[in-house]
Each structure stands twice: as structure tokens, then as C-alpha cells.
Amino acid sequence: RPAIAARPAAAPRSGAGDASSRADPAQLRPYVGKKLRGEIRKWKGDWGFVVCPDKFEGDLFAHRDNLTLDAEPEPGKQVSFLIGEDAKGRPTAAEVTEPGVQAEDFVGSGPMEGIIRSWKKDWGFIVAPEAFEGDLFCHLDNVERLPHWPEPPDRPDPKELASHHATFEVTTDRKGRPCAASVFVGEPLDESELPAQPAAPPARRAPAPAA
Prior knowledge:
Blueprint: H1 16-21, H2 25-28, E1 35-44, E2 47-51, E3 60-63, E4 67-68, E5 78-85, E6 91-97, E7 112-120, E8 123-127, E9 136-139, E10 164-172, E11 178-188
Parallel strand pairs: 4-6
Antiparallel strand pairs: 1-2, 1-5, 2-3, 5-6, 7-8, 7-10, 8-9, 10-11
């Protein structure tokens, strides 16, 4: 998980209104460490809140130390960000940057090439880092069967899917969320193509107390 700057003493304490609008940590948990795109809802001094209604409800705290923007943060500005945790385990926005391209930008654009990053039972994630940020959800129902796979309800071995090349199209599910369709599984990745595991960033140290 990304290292997060500690919240300053001046950060707001949640009043009744703020507390009711904060994003539910349980709802955020599936997105921890993933790049999302949203916007700054509110900003004051060194802190503010970002929102991403397509992925979660409510506000996510953000601090200036975790921003890399071309201009001053202001309400309504589109941004990309990770969901991380601060030193006390509270969810907060990390690596807040100018907005990047997301999978939903390719809905209806036709076949694309990518990699099946991981797979578990009936679902997994596809990545195409040269095209868009983050992961694209994929369900087994949208994968074209290979001849040697077992017949449903039996599932193919996850090793038949994970770490394989794939062609796919981006569509949306019944809730309007982006997902992969018309997925054709290709050749497995060789060792040189396997994605490198990013090194964990160094943790920030709290300033030493004054003597």
C-alpha cells in the first residue's frame, strides 16, 4: 500500500455533517491500491475531499502532501488517485495527479490487446497499461471458451487465464460499470513480459519532537 503523509493537526475533525458524508471504509476496501478517477469536491488550505461516484459513495480525505498537480487544487477539478491509508489506518487519497485515461474511455472502441493480470474462479482483471490506467473487471461468461476447457459448471484452471495475453472489448455491465467482453485468451506471458512487482515506497517519518 502506498505510504501516506500523516494528517496534520489542522485537519478537520468530523462534525455531524462531515461524518455522514465520509466514504464507508468497507466500500473503499476493494479499491485500495488501484488507480481511480474522480474530482475534488472541496478544498481548504492544505486539505480537502475527493469523490468518485462511479466507485464509492461519500468523501475521501486528501492532503496537499499527496498531490502532484499542474495547478492549485480547486472544487470540480478532475484527478486520478489511489486509495490508501494514513498512519492510523484511515482511508485517504494518495498519489493524486492530473487525470489519466481510464478503461471506460474505450467503451465501444472495438478490440484491444492486454494481459489477464489475475484470475480467481469466475472472474479476474485485465490490464492494458499502454492504453489505460488500472484494472478492468472480467467475468468468465465473457471469455470465449477454449476447446480443451471443461464443460460448465466446471471451471478452467485459473492458470489457463492468469498471466496470458488477451484481446477484448470494453463494455459496461447492468450498473454502468466498465467490464471486459468478447475476451479471447492468447499465449501465456514469458518471463520477460511478467509485470514487475513495484517496490514499496519508504514510509514517511514523523518529525522529531522539539527539545
